[in-house]
Amino acid sequence: QFEPLHGEAVATDAEAPITRLTAPNAGPFTFHGTNTYLIGTRELVVIDPGPDDERHFAALMAAIADRPVSAIAVTHTHADHSPLARRLKQQTGAEIVGCAPHFGARPLADGEVNLLDASADRAHAPDRILDDGHAIDTECGPLAAVATPGHTANHLCFALDQAGVLFSGDHVMAWSTSIVAPPDGAMGAYMASLDRLIARDDRIYLPGHGG
């Protein structure tokens, strides 16, 4: 059960001031749409601004209102997660941080075609790549990168440990298992990343799609 409430800023169940906006890009790979998260009340950090969609951008700017944005964090470079970061940076002046530019888990084999190539945001250019364990400051404590390759080779989750929250991107979702498609993704890396999360003590996951 998940009600996206497209265009509305919805409070999450986290024990921290975190709101969700779901982009109106529903589909077989996105469920009801891509979730964008805003951390904070006075100064915001935005996670996964989403696709370059005019309606979602307008809703996001309305939710931000006149509050400063200190950073735009991106979990991975699929076209439903990262492209709007560039426009949001232009509007707010916030730096883009998080995952590296798009790269594959392995080279293409002879004659192989990348069936998901159109989904890659190859224009993504972060101001600062967050390596595993590196963190940025938020109103709710440090937000640390947790390297979770598998869905894509550059996939990150973000941990807000003081609140017990993990922004799980497309690595773990409640509505479906993740798509792991080579050459962009790799199942061995994905399984190892799942093991890594099992060893953590997060209390709630806020995913890229669904509840």
Specify the biggest β-sheet: 7 strands, mixed
Beta content comes to 15-25%
N-to-C CA distance: 8 Å
Number of helices: 3
Compute the number of strand runs.
Answer: 12
Describe, in plain words, how this protein is organized in 3D.
With 211 residues, this protein is an alpha/beta fold. The protein contains three helices and twelve strands. The protein has helices at residues 54-64, 84-92, 187-198; strands at residues 10-11, 18-22, 35-39, 44-47, 69-74, 95-98, 128-129, 135-136, 143-147, 156-160, 165-169, 204-207. The strands form two sheets. It has a seven-stranded mixed beta sheet, covered by helices on one side. It has a five-stranded mixed beta sheet with strand order 8-9-10-11-12, with no helix packed on it. A hairpin with a 6-residue loop joins strand 8 (135-136) and strand 9 (143-147). The longest helix has 12 residues, at 187-198. The model has no long low-confidence stretch (mean pLDDT 96).
